[in-house]
Amino acid sequence: MRLETSTIRIESLEPIHYDEILRIVENLPEWFDETARTRSLPTDLRYQIGFVAASDQRVAGFITLYVTEGRLHIGWLAVDKRMQRQGLGSLLLESAESKARQLGIDELATYTLGESVSYPPYEMTRSFYRKHGFRVYKRTRTDNPGCPEEIWISKRVKP
Ligand SMILES: CC(C)(COP(=O)(O)OP(=O)(O)OC[C@H]1O[C@@H](n2cnc3c(N)ncnc32)[C@H](O)[C@@H]1OP(=O)(O)O)[C@@H](O)C(=O)NCCC(=O)NCCS
């Protein structure tokens, strides 16, 4: 079901949202492989804080967050395929920035697939983060064939 954008509100992530979140990532296999969908994300949801963009308990997008090395780190972020490019991802990011301010943390960070790997879905992901002012602060090579280069990106959160 497609949600009417005008009725969508940002709410804190709660267990009641988990099934809807798993439904969203089921339809985004280009970003969320089977391990992510069935193991990593369901576990992380229980231990990370976060926000959902939702209307009447229907979830259109979500972001999860945890604190590490002095940064508020984005664990997982996605918007329902049918609801993308309508500003919901940006709203979720703003909520994460507000949370950082509330926690007294001045940097929001995450990591993603590096640009040395040609994979169009993640070009879109990098565009999204670039548009929001994220810059690379570290590059790592991995032995994971699905993600041989990771870029670690962050932005300063204004007080
Ligand atoms: C990344 C994602 C969360 C963005 O959410 P969204 O609601 O579509 O994003 P917004 O509408 O707020 O877009 C903000 C800006 O991001 C960029 N952007 C978003 N989608 C884009 C696309 N398909 N192609 C190019 N740029 C894009 C644009 O600069 C856009 O601004 P504009 O529409 O004014 O040009 C969403 O596209 C998504 O779920 N992607 C798949 C999962 C993913 O990449 N997760 C993050 C890493 S795991």
Features:
single chain, alpha+beta, Aminopeptidase, seven-stranded mixed sheet, 33% strand, binds coenzyme A
Brief synopsis:
The chain has 159 residues and is of the alpha+beta class.
SSE diagram, text form:
Elements: E1 9-12, H1 18-26, H2 34-47, E2 49-55, E3 58-68, E4 71-79, H3 88-103, E5 107-113, H4 120-131, E6 135-141, E7 149-156
Parallel strand pairs: 4-5
Antiparallel strand pairs: 1-2, 2-3, 3-4, 5-7, 6-7
Helix pairs in contact: 1-2
This protein binds coenzyme A.
Describe this entry's structure for a reader.
The protein is globular, with a radius of gyration of 15 Å. By secondary structure, the protein is of the alpha+beta class. The longest helix has 16 residues. It has a single domain, classed as Aminopeptidase. Helices cover 32% and strands 33% of the residues. Helix 1 packs antiparallel against helix 2. The site of coenzyme A has 18 residues, from strand 4, helix 3 and helix 4.
